[in-house]
Design goal:
Layout lengths: L1 H16 L15 H6 L1 E5 L3 H5 L2 E2 L2 E2 L10 H4 L4 H5 L12 H10 L4 E7 L16 H4 L6 H12 L2 E6 L15 H4 L4 H21 L6 E4 L12 H14 L4 E2 L15 E2 L14 E6 L16 H12 L3 E7 L9 H17 L19 E7 L5 E7 L7 E5 L7 E6 L2 E4 L2 E4 L2 E5 L10 E7 L18 E4 L11 E3 L8 E3 L4 E9 L3 E11 L5 E7 L2 E7 L4 E5 L3 E4 L2 E10 L3 E9 L7 E10 L2
Parallel strand pairs: 1-4, 1-10, 4-5, 5-6, 6-7, 8-9, 9-10
Antiparallel strand pairs: 2-3, 11-12, 12-18, 13-17, 14-15, 14-18, 16-17, 19-30, 20-21, 21-30, 22-29, 23-28, 23-30, 24-25, 24-29, 26-27
Helix pairs in contact: 6-8, 6-13, 10-11
The structure holds ligand FHN.
């Protein structure tokens, strides 16, 4: 098995060097392979807070995040009153197997459940503290036991969320307010650690069979709060001693570079922007709150959730999607609908997600969606075009793969539909049928008998044709000028506050004239000269100062960006060209370059 994996990694590395499509798996940590293969898991926030449903004495959550599981802290609820929420649990209905079945049907491969959240209440029958769900509810049921049995039965990996840093129940646990009160000393906090954290983790790792991972939740650096590195190391040591295969996430409070941390957990609902070599995930909500909130009204669409999953996979990441069941165990209808829809999609297109990764093109190369890939293990390679937006002109434009596929097939529920295509240099045009392959995301499979060649730097063709040359897709040193992303007011741009030249790699699909427009903001008092050169020909334009633009009435103004048609440059044949743009602002001038738009004239 190890040998096969080694061979696969070597093949992938060699394909990377040859600039072919790179499904580069990157971890040399075998234990984490199942996790990166799985790509999609379920998070479950369920505890006493589920019974409060985000409302306390007629009032919604106070101060900020509106996470229902924070209600004890936010609404300053006493330990006794909070404990009395146990009366609302309906054990005749609670059935953890239903959660497992919902996960399985959704195509998820693992479950992470909040064994203990910040409220400090163990949801299993912990011997360490009587303030646990089984005792408070006066039941002999142990949800964690039942869940572990169901997970094993249905082939789902089980993981525990354990709130180590925060514990609002233990007298020496931490809550944020102690930043003001200074109530707990280091010694006391260590008592909490030794008497509750480590013994409870021991229970979780001893009594419930194989645990796939422990998911911790400290989202600040441990040095900025009460937790000591030695305490974190005790946790790692305990886990490795009791369950050597159990993974540990970075929110233990240590970064991914530390030995003992297997994968990185990004910020909540923070999806990938760049390719990461190490294993990573986003934990995200299906609506807003993690725990069940009766006032929830921010359910995300199925398309949005699928796109989050695909975006992450294309950047080597996982998606761990949260649901918050009620105190009777039921999953809200809105959640069930989305999980089922995702499950139907994965049953059809799962091959493009599990064991998959991105190709070595720019992360947001195409404006119609994303690309994933995986090696079939026999040298064959599949590339999956995940089409979020079905082009109105029924041509899907894919840029950067220069090998012709053997087959192009649209994956439909009813089967596969072969699609005609043309390849011109790095520009692949696929002729699409009228109707999209799927109401959420359509998947088109490209088959190759070996890793196809990739032209990673070439400018992508936009939907409907045309090429946007921006600060993000230049070929030269990207650090010479500051790149500013769309900030809600101004478009993405490059700050060119000194004279400079930038260039791009462009593939002209045919001979002829290409029009050249430049979009910019010139905050200087003088005109700024812009020269664009391609195929040894040059055009020039003095770019006039621009002004401000009103965003909203009565005072919200921002920099105006204008679009100027400079002219056209003719090329004698189809092929690769370097396009160079030179600007001559005086040092200190405010010249913001947005893009050049290149388009073939009829
Ligand atoms: O405060 C928690 C929150 O309640 C929830 O558990 C999420 C899950 O990632 N983690 C914390 C915030 O980052």
């Amino acid at each position: 098995m190890r040998l096969i994996r080694l061979l696969v990694v070597l093949m992938l590395l060699s394909s990377a060097l040859n600039s072919t499509a790179q499904p580069v798996t990157t971890s040399n940590n075998d234990r984490v392979q199942w996790f990166t293969d799985a790509r999609f898991g379920m998070f479950i926030h369920w505890g006493l807070y589920s019974a409060a449903e985000g409302i306390w004495h007629g009032e919604r959550l106070r101060n900020g995040n509106n996470y229902a599981e924070w209600i004890r802290y936010r609404n300053r609820i006493s330990r006794e009153e909070y404990g009395a929420l146990a009366k609302r649990f309906d054990w005749s209905k609670i059935n953890p197997e239903e959660w497992v079945l919902a996960a399985k049907k959704a195509g998820m491969k693992y479950i992470v459940i909040t064994a203990k959240h910040h409220d400090g209440v163990a949801i299993w029958n912990s011997k360490v503290s009587d303030y646990n769900l089984s005792k408070l509810c006066n039941t002999n049921r142990d949800v964690i036991k039942e869940l572990s049995v169901a997970c094993r039965k249905h082939g789902i990996k089980l993981a525990f969320y354990y709130s180590h840093w925060l514990d609002w129940e233990h007298p020496f646990g931490w809550d944020h307010n102690q930043e003001i009160t200074g109530r707990v000393t280091d010694e006391q906090y260590n008592q909490y650690w030794q008497q509750k954290v480590l013994p409870q983790l021991r229970e979780l790792l001893t009594n419930y069979g194989d645990i796939a991972m422990l998911w911790f939740d400290m989202w600040v650096d441990h040095k900025t709060t009460i937790v000591k590195k030695e305490q974190l190391q005790q946790v790692i040591q305990l886990i490795h001693e009791l369950q050597p295969k159990c993974l540990i996430n970075s929110r233990l409070g240590l970064s991914i570079d530390n030995p003992g941390i297997d994968f990185e957990t990004m910020g909540d609902n923070e999806f990938g922007a760049i390719y990461q070599k190490h294993p990573w995930e986003t934990a995200g909500t299906i609506a807003h709150s993690w725990g069940y909130n009766a006032l929830e009204n921010q359910w995300k669409s199925t398309s949005q959730l699928l796109q989050s999953l695909i975006d992450n996979v294309s950047l080597n990441g996982n998606f761990t999607l949260n649901i918050g069941p009620r105190a009777d165990g039921s999953i809200p209808y809105e959640g069930i609908r989305r999980l089922e829809d995702i499950g139907v999609w994965l049953a059809k297109s799962g091959e493009s997600i599990y064991k998959s990764i991105g190709v070595s093109l720019r992360p947001s190369q195409h404006d119609w969606g994303r690309i994933t890939t995986h090696n079939t293990g026999t040298g064959n390679q599949k590339i999956y075009l995940q089409v979020y937006n079905w082009p109105l002109d029924h041509i899907l434009r894919v840029t950067g793969i220069t090998t012709a596929p053997q087959r192009v097939e649209l994956i439909r529920k009813s089967g596969r539909q072969s699609l005609p295509f043309t390849l011109n240099g790095p520009l692949l045009h696929i002729r699409l049928p009228q109707e999209a392959g799927d109401p959420f995301v359509s998947t088109i499979e490209l088959s190759y008998d070996a890793a196809p060649a990739i032209e990673a730097k070439v400018i992508a063709e936009s939907s409907f044709g045309g090429f946007a040359l921006t600060g993000e897709n230049i070929t030269g040193d990207p650090s010479e000028f500051e790149l500013v992303k769309y900030d809600g007011l101004r478009p993405a741009h490059m700050v060119m506050n000194k004279p400079g030249t930038i260039s791009w790699r462009f593939y002209a699909p045919e001979a002829g004239k290409y029009s050249i427009d430049v979009s910019y903001h010139n905050g200087a008092k003088e005109k700024i000269l812009c020269s664009v050169e391609m195929d040894g020909k040059q055009i020039q334009q003095a770019l006039s100062p621009t002004s401000r633009v009103v965003v909203e009435p009565n005072g919200q103004y921002t920099d105006e960006f204008v679009n100027v048609t400079m002219g056209a440059i003719e090329v004698s044949k189809a092929g690769y060209y370097q396009v160079t743009a030179k600007f001559d602002p005086r040092t200190g001038d405010k010249f913001l370059f947005n893009r050049i738009w290149l388009n073939k004239l009829p």
